[in-house]
Amino acid sequence: MKTFWRRFRKSRVGVVGGVMLILMIVSAIVTPVLWPHDPVTGDLRLRLRPPVWKDGGDWSHPLGCDQQGRDVLSRLLHGARVSLLVGLVVVVASAAVGTLLGLLAGYFGGWIDAVISRTVDILLAFPFMIFAIGLMAVLQPGLLNIILTLTLKGWVPFCRLVRGDALAAKGREHVEAARALGAGHRHQLFREILPIVLPSVIVLGTLTVATVILLEASLSFLGLGVQPPTPTWGGMVSEGREYLIEEWWLSTFPGLAILLTVLSVNLFGQGMRDALDPHLQE
């Protein structure tokens, strides 16, 4: 950990992305508890109130109100919970499933590798967004279903990555030495090979969070994600389309939230890659 932290601090973009990401996570967890406005219940007397720097705005609603008189800032903060939760849960579940299947395919080979590889090929034939839209159209839109949908295809990149690394790792000297000493398959897989592939999985998982957040926002924009009245960034962008010319803040602020979150995750992932990839070290 000391070596990793020393290398990570050398990546300025990684540190900036990490700080931005931490601030967003803390804001999503703490601020909605302290901010007094309800993100679901509105007041029609405050309908389309502008941000504080425009005429008619005030500090009680610094980012304005939407068409139902709901505080935009409160909805942004609660929407961050949904996006970050979906991103983290989907990536953790996808990484776990993909890593396990990739280890089995790369280590055992034979029919196990054939079955897993053909399944991967079939799923790769479908574009991620088309696959998600089709499955969400069959399932009932909701938080659990969107997590399940994105996980059902999200494990594929992890599986392909780990399979290739496991194929190369099982021929290394320390793995062959463990095999010669009588170590079982479980020991070889999880004690010898897994530590080799784990840094690549961490980097891929960090970068995949941004992709998952974009997919969740896209599905919510299309009405196939988390349903109202729960606030989501994609849903807020969709609801503000009708008012984009005059009341631009309804769609602009959630769009900026998506942009900053994805940017911070990608910068943090780049820093993780620089810190964990031995080929990039001096």
Secondary structure: helix percent: over 70%
The oligomeric state is single chain
Give the end-to-end Cα distance, rounded to a whole number of Å: 18 Å
**Model regions low in confidence, pLDDT < 50 over at least 5 residues:** none
Choose one word for the global shape: elongated
CATH topology of one domain: MetI-like fold
What does the radius of gyration come to?
A: 22 Å
CATH architecture of one domain: Orthogonal Bundle
What structural class do helix, strand and pairing data support? mainly alpha
Number of H- or I-type helical stretches? 10
Strands, helices and their partners?
Blueprint: H1 2-10, H2 12-34, H3 72-108, H4 110-124, H5 128-138, H6 143-169, H7 173-180, H8 185-221, H9 233-239, H10 249-276
Helix pairs in contact: 1-10, 2-3, 2-10, 3-4, 3-6, 3-8, 4-6, 5-6, 6-8, 7-8, 8-9, 8-10, 9-10
